Structures are given as C-alpha cells and as structure tokens.
Amino acid sequence: SAVISQKPSRDICQRGTSLTIQCQVDSQVTMMFWYRQQPGQSLTLIATANQGSEATYESGFVIDKFPISRPNLTFSTLTVSNMSPEDSSIYLCSVDPDRDLSSYNEQFFGPGTRLTVL
Amino acid sequence: DAKTTQPTSMDCAEGRAANLPCNHSTISGNEYVYWYRQIHSQGPQYIIHGLKNNETNEMASLIITEDRKSSTLILPHATLRDTAVYYCIVRVGFGNEKLTFGTGTRLTIIP
Description:
The complex is a heterodimer. Chain A is mainly β.
C-alpha cells in the first residue's frame, strides 16, 4: 500500500494568484497522477507525472496553467496558475506503487486539496 | 478504455446486501473491471477488480457475466459507512494505465 499526504488540505485564494499543492508519498513510486474534481462532478485526470521526465497532460490541460514538478520518487507538486473561480475544485494526487508491470497496479489516492477561488 | 454505464443513485437498507450494477458492453478481452468508491470529502478507495471470474475480498464480491458485458458489485451487509459514490472502471490490467472515472453511482445506506 501507499500512504499519501497533501498540503494544504484546503485554501481560499484570490483570482489571478497561484497556488502550489504538494503531494508526499511514504514510499518510492514511479507513477504519480494529478486529478481535478469540480463541485458535484467526477474525477478528471490532469496529468501523469513521472520522475525524471516531463509531465504528460490530458486534453484540455496545459503546462502553463498547471505546471507540475516531480523532483524525486516520493514527492510532486501541482501549481494552479492565474486562478479564476472556475478553478475552484478538489485537487487529488494518486500513485501507482512500483510493481511488476505485467500485473495490475492498484492506485492509491491522497485526501485532496479543496481550493476555492474568489 | 471502454466506457461504463451505472445508475445515478441507489438506496439500500442497513444490514442488507447492496447490489450495484455496471454495464460495459464494449469491454475488450484484455480489460479488467475495477471498482473504486469515494466517501464524502475523501479520495477514492480501491475495492476490488476482476477479469472474467467472480471475485471476493474482505470488502465486497464482484460478479461478472459470462459475456463480460456487465457486472455487479455486492456489499454483503451494508453499513452506514458504505454510503459513498461507487465507480465502475474498465482498463487494461497491467502496465501503468490511467484510471478514467465515469459519473458513478451514489449509494445511500438507510438506517
């Protein structure tokens, strides 16, 4: 298993500012994912963050808006840049613990960061 | 990944079995069926997964039809803590494939 913590747990921000969300894992993992969950909606994948390479963004998400860092195998950050009220969401990180790629990898999720943009 | 169809919401009496259906009629031969749930204000939690055989663990049972076009998640003795949104997801069962969440079923356990 993997234990994931996120900071901050919640924040209220002004439009036009940026917020960096941290994700810390208690073990080394290759794959980390960032999701967004808008109010009342399901989870949408923003990007996949692999250590040592550029993050891979899903359609509709760009690096300028959501820059991601992955400095090592236990840590990642997601920045929400130039925020607007439409960015108000829960942001979650998840990990795929290192296992044999020929077998199923269960994903573990962090508790989320609840962001409100005024 | 193949898409799934789930009822928007369901109610179940506490102590009874909760049966959550999922349709995945376009599932491919190498795709597994996974179930996650999300309790309010928490991140999703893995429940169970299967390919074609029925599976059971400490949390739930998964029944997959012979043609694999649908499945049912069974919580044998539902408690109030099982109130959550349940997501049925299909994806390839190896490698580092992303999870694609649908809208899920909001299950409410009634005292």
